[in-house]
Amino acid sequence: MIVLSIAVVGALTVSACGSRDSKKGGSDGSGAGTTVVIGVDAPLTGDLSAIGIGIKNSVDLAVRTANATNEVPGVKFEIKALDDTAKPAPGQQNATQLVADKNVLGVVGPLNSSVAQSMQQIFNDANLVEISPANTGVALTQGEKWASGTKVRPFKTYFRTATTDAVQGPFAAQYLYNDAKKTKVFLIDDQKTYGAGLASTFKGEFTKLGGTVIGEEHINPDDRDFSAIATKVKNSGAEAIYYGGEYPAAGPLSLQVKDAGANIPVMGGDGMQSADFIKLNPKSQGDLATAVGLSVEKLPSAAKFIADYAAAGYKDPYETYGGYSYDSAWAIIQGIKAVAAANNGKLPGDARAKVVDAVQKVGFAGVSGTVSFDEFGDTTNKQLTVYKVQDGKWAVEKSGTFTG
Amino acid sequence: MNELPQQLANGLILGALYGLVAIGYTMVYGIVQLINFAHGEIFMVGGFGALTAYLALPGGTTLWLAVPLMLAAGITVSTLVAVGAERFAYRPLRGAPRLAPLITAIGLSIVLQQLVFSFYPDAKKAKVFPKIPGDAFQVLGMTIQRSDLFLIVAAPVCMIILGWFVNRTRSGRAMQATSQDPDTAKLMGIDTDRIIVLAFAIGAAFAAVAAVAYGLRTGQVDFRMGFILGLKAFTAAVLGGIGNIYGAMVGGLVLGLAEGLATAYIQHLPGMHLFGGGAWKDVWAFVLLIVVLLARPQGLLGERVADRA
């Protein structure tokens, strides 16, 4: 709580500077032959860099594609990728830096919901559109009171192509209870916005279905020794673990639980569905994870993305959010295209504000399916997939659309 | 099922790991009264040294051969880094106020982390460390991992060797003399610079052993792993009485046990259900430290002022 309030106070202070900056230099967007920068904020180093670099590369691919096909006539796109190391404070500095660069007309990112919290106000004050390919924290678009039914969109500049925990947790609960026939689950989360959100929405749905949460634990995301918790899980008689958190801790957690002799699957959200989870965990066979959207590999609309990504020769894979990152960047590009088209092919002085309105209205067939946003800035695409580790790979177990 | 024996085993194994690292803090403090905050990073580079050795071996090498080689490589790298740090970062500040080497240590810690982060191939995320294959052992209702066997054997062996070295060898006695009174020791013909280097080297070697144990145990090493573990080990050293090598080991074991038991049992105490579990284990570990220091400011076994080693 203290950390959160510090972050909030920080957000207010820094955002005040941010808005001044943008007023000073934000209004001389000129016409043809201009360069537009699309900002990227993601963890490019550290534990989550595998996913973060996938995001950066996918945005880069979208930008290259737009430049190659001359998607917006007379506008050349560039990316500016900043590293938030998965922490709110660097994310906030990056937001201020992106806002200050008047060529930036849209930002893709961040990966972490907790980082997004620290950036939203800054982008909102500067009227700069931000589309996250990965944030699943519900409150980011629907306000703190979403659970009680009072949904208020806090920031009009914030959008996301990922669906929310409000959908992901319950979808996992339905899978575990209805399909996998597990009735006793041990719940663990890492106390971050993402992990705790997943765990609480999972718990709500799972108990509603008739399942029992047999034990609850919270870990520190930097811990790598879970032997004490593994012993508790083993002795609790749980049939599965649901873990709200990300792969750097999920890998050793799953491994140590199985080492302790509890041969039960660990299920998590999309933060766990990384190739590194399997690499760090030799006993990952049978573990499960939900991910938003349908499997990129299975989508006909994604074939071109996969081929282009391979052809572009990136060193790292596009990971979980590659398709969504591409779609996020493409939504910004489409927004800019609409703004330019409405202004005789030139970008107006207040391009940032106009791009926000244009992104709200975009609709196109993207990598992950139809890309468009509802009144909260959430994606209208609520498809999910359950993945299972089989022979060292995440294999599709079940796909579906979440209802209710 | 009663989980107490298993939680005790978990705690002792984790504690042995803390203890091995804590030796490094305590040895250096005992001789030069410097808290070497870079010691966590010495531990980390040891892990990377061992990993490098493993990756250099041809695939399929049996771990019976690989683990000793990894250990040798880890110890070599850790020791070289620690001795280098002593020579180039701490020795020039020998006569300076105490704060100067302390800050240098913190700076060195950041430098080492960033060096590994920037220059070790692909070290920006966690690297996979080999694990000893095979099922866990079942002993008296407890499950002991094969990978933990290494630690269970290595920690007591290291302690016995260290005890013998400090008490029975010429260099060990020179070390005790230096810690009691460096100036007099110098007058008696002891090369105190050599003794100080030796203290750094021994601490580093122990840290490298701990790093291999950590890697085998968690199946991964990453460039930040020394920070938290270093902090815990420093706590263990203070808990046991800084400057006292047996205290370091005891402090480590007590700390490991406290963490394991806090995770398992605190939340079952009446009225404490909100304060238990894995999220609070660090809090309880530090509460224990504060309570011990209030009751015994010199630590569990006492700070060895007269006969630090």
Would you give an account of this structure?
The complex is a heterodimer of chains A (404) and B (309). By secondary structure, chain A is of the alpha/beta class. Chain A folds into 2 domains: 2-14 and 34-163 and 299-373, Response regulator (Rossmann fold, 3-Layer(aba) Sandwich); 165-292 and 384-401, Rossmann fold (3-Layer(aba) Sandwich). Chain A has 13 helices and 14 strands. In chain A, strands 7-6-8-9-10-13-14 form a 7-stranded mixed β-sheet, with helices on both faces. Chain A has a 5-stranded parallel β-sheet with strand order 2-1-3-4-5. A two-stranded antiparallel ribbon of chain A has the order 11-12. In chain A, helix 1 (2-25) packs parallel to helix 4 (113-125) and helix 6 crosses helix 7 (193-209). The longest helix of chain A is centred in the N-terminal third of the chain and has 24 residues, at 2-25. Chain A is elongated. Chain B has 309 residues and is mainly alpha-helical. Chain B has one domain. Chain B has helices spanning 4-32, 39-56, 63-90, 99-119, 146-168, 170-180, 182-187, 192-218, 225-240, 245-265, 281-295; strands at residues 127-128, 137-139, 142-144, 220-221. In chain B, the strands form 2 sheets. Chain B has a two-stranded antiparallel sheet with strand order 1-4. In chain B, a hairpin with a 2-residue loop joins strand 2 and strand 3. Classes of the chains: A alpha/beta (404), B mainly alpha (309). At the A-B interface, strand 7, helix 8 and helix 9 of A face helix 1 and helix 10 of B.
